[in-house]
Amino acid sequence: MATTTKKKLPLFPLISLLSFTSIFYLLSQFRNTSSSSSIKAFSSIHNFQIDNNRHRRGSCDYSDGIWIYDESRVSRYDSNCKEIFKGWNCVKGNKANGVEVAKWRWKSNGCGELDRFDPLRFLQTHTHTSIGFVGDSLNRNMFVSLFCTLRSSISDGQVKKWRPAGADRGFTFLTYNLTIAYHRTNLLARYGRWSASENGGALETLGFKEGYRVDVDVPDSTWVQAANFHDILIFNTGHWWWAPSKFDPVNSPMLFFKNGQPVIPPLRPDQGLDMVLEHMKAYVEEKARPGAVKFFRTQSPRHFEGGDWDQGGSCQRDQPLSAEQVEELFSVKNNGTNVEVRLVNEHLNKALKGSSFVILNITYLSELRADAHPASAGGKKHDDCMHWCLPGITDTWNDLFVEHLNSIEHRS
Fold it and tell me: Membrane spanning segments where (predicted)?
């Protein structure tokens, strides 16, 4: 039998190797805990791009591409998911193309097809995690999509309703201790009715009699605790800032307050949005849990044609738009019915540049999908050309969300 002789390793090289390994480990730990997130914004038709360093596939821009129809594509959950709001259930609402809405898949120009995320794997890799959606009903649209997708992968009895930290609704997936919640807030900031005081004041002197008071530096109570509760946050705002039917500039204007006092001279809504974004950004970055991942979703487009929702506008298309049709409908220079989508994104770009927020850019891929709104499904009095069918395009938003989340976690 052959025998081997063990050689003694020289002591000095061994100590050097151990020292180098220890230093490398400490440096890598320091880098992981101290490096801050960065956002690389660029000015173009599609507004935003995620920092390339965050992405596993290198220089990727999922915001630009085409939709491909796939007859064999099956919805990841069905229309019986109980969390789907009745007005968004295009299959049960008998929308003519209700089933086809979810048969389109997104192929980006730079990265190829966007993969569907695996709901069971997501649950397994995000145990003991809390995810909070903070924003208006379009964020609820996305929240419901995520819930129904995750719910489809587990058996009955593994989900419990639970509304944490002032949430409007929420659920915990018990086996994995994963919680997802939706915090409803229209403006991010606190607001409410305002009426002139008998004693007078700065606003009364200017002739204001009533309106809506918006405190730019005070978070809405519905999500004030969410920033330090959730491990992952997805914010949005936008539609309510361009809503003359709610905030009539003459009869019920938005009146902005800071430090409890009215801002004089009064601000336009877009100026107020800038102030709110600056204060909310600072608040979240101060209050967020260590290591929390903070997303801000870009504006979701409306597709009213022939007028706004209360002017006979409709969205009866059954196919995605062409790139040329998108420009005609959303170009800022055309000042169309749906132009606010890109105006809002300009304000988001300015406010979030250089912050630790990750931009979740869903705008352009959604601009193409004029066919994916509930429209008149379910016998609506007015076409709903703002929210989205479920199953539908917000499923793709969540694919994009999970893709970026995986990239961030992979890097960390």
Answer: 9-27
